[in-house]
Amino acid sequence: MATRQGQALGRLALAPSIVALAVWAFVPLALAIYYAFLHYNLQDPDNTFYAGWSNFYYFVTDPFFAQDLVNTIALVLLILVITVVGGVLLALNIGTIVPFIEHLFGVQFLSKEFYYISELPSDLQRGDVFVVAGMSFFISLIATLYPSWRAAKIQPAEALRYE
Does 27 reside within a domain? Predict the structure, then answer.
């Protein structure tokens, strides 16, 4: 068991990386929230002003919103099914996949002296798979709604005019 002094020293050593991780995660989130309330035009960046909730109202009342939502959900579900099935297959067969890759390339990147990949069983928890898949679906859905809505509004000829 570690002493209190050792624990404090360990926390102090980890503090800079925790702060860096927090900044790396929260600064883009804060900027995204800030920009969501601005009216910003890339063709006229000097004409930026506070738009309030009008951006969100415009987003939800757009006639293309429903179709964009359906397309987004279909795409996210397809990708989610592929990645969950692939991840489960990989987890259940990791003991045979790693030696195969090592044999295929003629290298041993996981030394049997340190990594007991072939001896340790893979314990796949069904509940964990559902939680991770559900959270992935939710995050992917939220992250893809706005770009798909913006893309649906652009007429192809208009978009190509400035290329």
Answer: no
